[in-house]
Amino acid sequence: MITVRAPATSANLGSGFDVFGVALGRPADVVQVEKAEETSIEVTGVGSRFIPEDPEGNTVGAVAKALDAPAHIKIDKGVRPASGLGSSAASAAGAALALNELYDRGHSRSELVPIAAEGEELVSGEAHEDNVAPALLGGFTVAAGDVGVTAVDARIPLVVCLPESVVSTRDARDVIPDRATLDELVGTVGKAATLAVGMCRDDPDLVGRGMHDDVVSPARAELIDGYDEVRDAALDAGATGVTVSGAGPGVIAACYPGRRRAIASAMVEAFDDRGVECRAYQTAVGPGATVHSPDSE
């Protein structure tokens, strides 16, 4: 039996649509696997009633099939589905790492990224790597298609505020404009480069300035009740940058150490003023999935 803790993630970070991602210190899924003649899945935890246990409709079923590693797979969900925090990616990455070790397949974590992404295809219709990459590799990741995946061990403090509302990945992709002006393209490239340098330098100011974009985030923000007020409240409380986490409705803020508590309180209060229940996580860019021995459970 192998048990893996797989972290929540935040993709895009504003200017890095479908490319950037970070692993979060919390929340996380716990995935446990045992060898079996055929794959079966058991799901508990937050939002588990909305997750299919049929291997043909679950992300971890696709991973087990890709690795030719049938198993009984238990998933204890700590990452709520449809949250913008990489819920399906956490399960897929955890299963990929656990099954790879259980069956001694010998894949590196980088080699497991496209395998875990096959599970993501069930959720969004495409095998995106921007969430599974940080879930497996940790830190700040750049999933650049044919160029491959690059990971940086960043340590940026973050606050994620998750409202009770739900935004599906498919709906969030439908609202994205299909064209951008040259000025918007140049501006986005500049912001993305600034954010990447900020992650390499552990500089919250550069990261925050690089999180702004004028194309994807404004369209997705329209799906989140109270987003503008929450963003403004976070900035007033000391956040260096705020944007939609993944497809939403989670909202993520970067900051300096010592500011997380005030920013979390401000974001929660702003959502509350709109009558929206929410939960805030005071976290940071963290490590990727970790394997736990039976003795540590």
Key features of this structure:
297 residues; alpha+beta; 10 helices
What does this structure look like?
The protein is of the alpha+beta class and 297 residues long. It has ten helices and eleven strands. The chain has helices at 59-66, 87-102, 109-124, 132-137, 169-174, 182-201, 204-210, 216-221, 227-236, 260-273, and strands at residues 2-11, 20-35, 40-45, 71-77, 140-143, 149-152, 157-163, 241-244, 251-254, 278-284, 290-292. Strands 1, 2, 3, 4, 5, 6 and 11 form a seven-stranded mixed sheet that branches. The N and C termini lie close together (11 Å). 56% of the residues are buried. The mean pLDDT is 93.
**Poorly predicted spans:** none
Structural class: alpha+beta
Gross morphology is: globular
- Average predicted confidence as pLDDT: 93
Work out the oligomeric state of the chains in this entry.
Answer: single chain
Distance between the termini: 11 Å
Strand content: 15-25%
* Computed Rg: 18 Å
For the largest beta-sheet, the strand count, sense and barrel status come to: 7 strands, mixed
Order of helices and strands: EEEHEHHHEEEHHHHHEEHEE
Total beta strands = 11
Number of helices: 10
Question: How helical, in percent, are the residues?
Answer: 25-40%
